[in-house]
Amino acid sequence: MIDRMMKPINDIYNRWVLHKNHVQCGRNLKVNGRVYVYGDILIGDSVSINSGFKYNPIGGQERTILYSRNGGKIKIGNNVGISNSSLFSVASITIEDNVKVGGSCKIYDTDFHSLDYYKRISDHDTDIISKPILIKEGAFVGAHSLILKGVIIGKHSIVGAGSIVTKNIPDNEIWAGNPACFIRKVTE
């Protein structure tokens, strides 16, 4: 009964948050739980977002966070599914159509801090490297994976659960591990 009462409250909250942050949304957006959004974000048609343990226990207690700043952009295509994951952009993150992002994934297009110790501890941390991320049509990112700056994940490719992706993955390949490496081709 509480679930039935919370659904309309969450729907109102999500509509308000999306509107307040000027998020452009396509038709048939479905959000389960409460999503956190900030910045320049575009969401396509028929996107499904789970946010919270109740809606995808694999992602734990995490909420889905879509956050861009300093000119960063997040663009989510049509028929995309995202569960309890965090996307953080200061360059750009593009997720094409029909992509699935599993529970508790992290997608970061920046290092957040300088690699130089003295710059990192200064009041004005500079020389932070940021590069766009592209996840191509039909890719699947397994739960608890980390996608780092500058990566392109190929069309129909699969990232195994718990992987850390630091370099490009070609189309139709399965990669997994830390760092992620080639496992085999996807068989159709």
Proportion of helical residues = 10-25%
Please state the structural category.
mainly beta
The largest sheet is: 8 strands, mixed
Q: How many beta strands in the DSSP annotation?
A: 20
Spatial separation of the terminal alpha carbons:
43 Å
How many helices in DSSP terms?
2
Average pLDDT rating = 92
User: What share of the residues does DSSP label as strand, in percent?
Assistant: 25-35%
| Spatial strand arrangement across the major sheet | 2-5-8-11-14-17-19-20
- Poorly predicted residue ranges: none
Shape: globular
Pattern of helices and strands: HEEEEEEEEEEEEHEEEEEEEE
Q: What Rg is obtained from the alpha carbons, in whole angstroms?
A: 17 Å
What order do the helices and strands come in, and which of them pair?
Layout: H1 2-20, E1 24-25, E2 30-33, E3 36-38, E4 40-43, E5 48-51, E6 65-68, E7 73-76, E8 81-83, E9 86-89, E10 92-95, E11 100-101, E12 106-108, H2 117-121, E13 133-135, E14 140-141, E15 146-147, E16 152-153, E17 158-159, E18 164-165, E19 173-177, E20 180-185
Parallel strand pairs: 1-4, 2-5, 3-6, 4-7, 5-8, 6-9, 7-10, 8-11, 9-12, 10-13, 11-14, 12-15, 13-16, 14-17, 15-18, 17-19
Antiparallel strand pairs: 19-20
Concise summary:
The chain is mostly beta strands and 188 residues long. The protein has helices spanning 2-20, 117-121, and strands at residues 24-25, 30-33, 36-38, 40-43, 48-51, 65-68, 73-76, 81-83, 86-89, 92-95, 100-101, 106-108, 133-135, 140-141, 146-147, 152-153, 158-159, 164-165, 173-177, 180-185.
